[in-house]
Design brief:
Elements lengths: L3 E4 L8 E8 L2 E7 L4 E4 L6 E11 L4 E10 L6 E12 L6 E7 L2 E6 L6 E6 L5 E6 L6 E7 L2 E6 L4 E5 L5 E6 L7 E4 L2 E5 L4 E6 L4 E7 L1 E2 L2 E2 L3 E7 L2 E6 L4 E5 L6 E6 L15 E7 L4 E6 L4 E9 L2
Parallel strand pairs: 7-25
Antiparallel strand pairs: 1-4, 2-3, 2-5, 5-6, 7-28, 8-9, 9-10, 10-11, 12-13, 13-14, 14-15, 16-17, 17-18, 18-19, 20-21, 22-23, 23-24, 24-25, 26-27, 27-28
């Protein structure tokens, strides 16, 4: 049955007394063994994971095993389209890694070692108000504000940087994850690392508290990149594709897919890189979208299909 996980356990030498099944930090079953264990897949998070099995035999010996499992989503993602309302100019030298909206300004991080920058852009005109080169040895990645502190990931440099809202560096701390995209919600950070994982991180306590594994109805969705929180969902650029996955932040299931193929004419702009950069103005619900070395930022209204 597609909606049921079936587990059969046996030992050739001894009878099994009890069993514990876990996945991640969640205990699925604990108790006396029945001949066949059936669990609803709704108890499992989608994506790749591991099922941990702990068996206690009649004579007291405990045996532990682990197996890989892959759970697909039961949801066929809705197709979501955009209406472009306005086009802002954009610096084509900017290798965009992160974009966010704050108090009428767009904050942008640009990558590549030796060329990494942080920029502040007027969200009405597209004019760049501040353009600061950062450490040339670092590869900038996603950015997010937690209150008045701007956090920035680095790609493979194992550092998390903190800036004030004027882009002055406050500190940098060791960080044990490769960095791609970043967003903030309720004073916590959510980051992507190029896999199908979105990791929740508490920047005050320096604690990784949860991992969301993202999947659609076909399987895990990899190469999650730039992130934004929009109307209770996580929007994620899929690296190398002209699309954005719209993800349930509790289950990890992809609820919708935004097709961005018409946002840029690849024949007209052959030097433009991949789509990357999502920012929301919460007052107007306008979404700002751009990409690496794109000549513009497009201000869009989301249109949901019936």
């Amino acid at each position: 049955m597609a909606d049921t996980l079936i587990v059969k356990l046996s030992d050739k030498k001894q009878k099994i007394d009890s069993v514990v099944l876990r996945t991640g930090n969640k205990t699925l079953l604990k108790g006396k063994l029945e001949s066949l264990i059936t669990l609803p897949v709704s108890d499992l998070r989608p994506g790749n994971g591991k099922l941990e099995i702990e068996v206690r035999l009649k004579k007291g010996k405990v045996v532990k095993r682990e197996c890989d499992i892959m759970v697909v989503s039961d949801i066929i993602p809705d197709e979501i389209k955009l209406d472009v309302i306005k086009i802002l100019p954009h610096d084509t030298s900017a290798f965009v890694q992160g974009l966010l909206y704050r108090e009428g300004m767009l904050y942008e991080s640009d990558g590549l070692k030796g060329r990494s920058r942080l920029r502040i852009i007027d969200a009405k005109t597209g004019n760049c108000l501040k353009d600061e080169f950062t450490d040339p040895e670092l590869f900038n990645e996603g950015i997010a504000f937690v209150r008045d502190t701007l956090y920035m990931l680095t790609w493979k440099d194992s550092l998390l940087l903190r800036f004030d809202q004027d882009l002055n560096l406050l500190s940098q701390v060791p960080f044990r994850s490769e960095g791609w995209g970043l967003l903030s919600h309720d004073d916590c950070l959510f980051l992507s690392n190029g896999t199908n994982e979105i990791i929740k991180y508490d920047p005050v306590r320096n604690v990784f508290s949860d991992t969301l594994r993202v999947a659609d109805n076909k399987g895990p969705v990899y190469y999650l990149n730039e992130l934004e929180w929009i109307e209770g969902m996580i929007w994620a650029n899929i690296y190398g594709k002209e699309s954005i996955a719209i993800i349930d932040p509790v289950s990890g299931k992809v609820k919708g897919v935004l097709n961005g193929r018409n946002l840029i004419d690849r024949k007209k702009y052959p030097e433009a890189g991949v789509m990357n950069g999502i920012a929301l103005d919460p007052a107007t619900n306008m979404v700002y979208l751009t990409g690496k070395n794109w000549p513009f930022i497009k201000v869009c209204r989301v249109r949901f299909e019936d």
